[in-house]
């Protein structure tokens, strides 16, 4: 089956919910999410603090989905769809990915603009940290942000991350790296 812009779609099995919070489902991404993920990743305002600060093309999103599906199989984690429980709408993504730039696992997240300032990124991020440190047994998780992105800096603070270091990222942009360790995870979540 082809969608309007000629991108072949292959339908897969139902995707199981990986994680759940009071307001969100966090589930695996699939090729069926291509257009929804593209809508998020092609938004100039949303993407200004992600990667090189430029929106992604449909081809880049398709490749990212392919890498993500491979990561589920080979690493046991990756990037996930964040879905609003109230209407089942995919409102963003959140996940754990390998950063070549620092040779560490990083927390990533982005939500559609209309879902900003509602605590949803913090809610999804907290569940993903618990998943990474408790279930996958990572020793630490990093997160990288543009120093100008005060909203993400606040989210990372709420999640328990501490400033680790600053350096240029793979695109040459000044970047602040934050870190959280398994020892920082509350005992009741282990």
From TrEMBL:
Transferase as UniProt keyword: yes
InterPro entries linked: Acyl_CoA_acyltransferase, GNAT_dom, N-acetyltransferase
Pfam families on file: Acetyltransf_3
Higher taxonomy: Bacteria, Pseudomonadati, Bacteroidota, Cytophagia, Cytophagales
UniProtKB keywords: Transferase
Native source species: Dyadobacter fermentans (strain ATCC 700827 / DSM 18053 / CIP 107007 / KCTC 52180 / NS114)
Highest taxon above the source species: Bacteria
Keyword Transferase: yes
Record Gene3D superfamilies: 3.40.630.30
Name this protein carries in UniProt: GCN5-related N-acetyltransferase
PANTHER family attached to this UniProt entry: GNAT FAMILY, PUTATIVE (AFU_ORTHOLOGUE AFUA_3G00765)-RELATED-RELATED, N-ACETYLTRANSFERASE DOMAIN-CONTAINING PROTEIN
């Amino acid at each position: 089956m082809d969608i309007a812009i000629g991108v072949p779609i292959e339908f897969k099995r139902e995707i199981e919910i990986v994680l759940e919070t009071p307001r969100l489902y966090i589930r695996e991404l699939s090729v069926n999410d291509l257009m929804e993920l593209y809508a998020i990743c092609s938004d100039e305002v949303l993407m200004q603090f992600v990667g090189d600060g430029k929106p992604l093309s449909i081809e880049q999103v398709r490749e990212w989905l392919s890498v993500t599906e491979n990561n589920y199989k080979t690493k046991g984690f990756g990037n996930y769809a964040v879905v609003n429980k109230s209407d089942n709408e995919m409102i963003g993504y959140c996940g754990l990915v390998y950063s070549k730039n620092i040779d560490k696992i990083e927390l990533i997240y982005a939500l559609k603009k209309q879902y900003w300032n509602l605590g949803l990124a913090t809610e999804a991020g907290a569940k993903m940290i618990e998943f990474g440190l408790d279930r996958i047994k990572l020793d630490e998780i990093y997160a990288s942000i543009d120093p100008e992105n005060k909203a993400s800096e606040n989210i990372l603070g709420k999640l328990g991350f501490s400033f680790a270091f600053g350096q240029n990222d793979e695109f040459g942009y000044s970047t602040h790296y934050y870190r959280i360790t398994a020892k920082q995870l509350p005992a009741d979540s282990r």
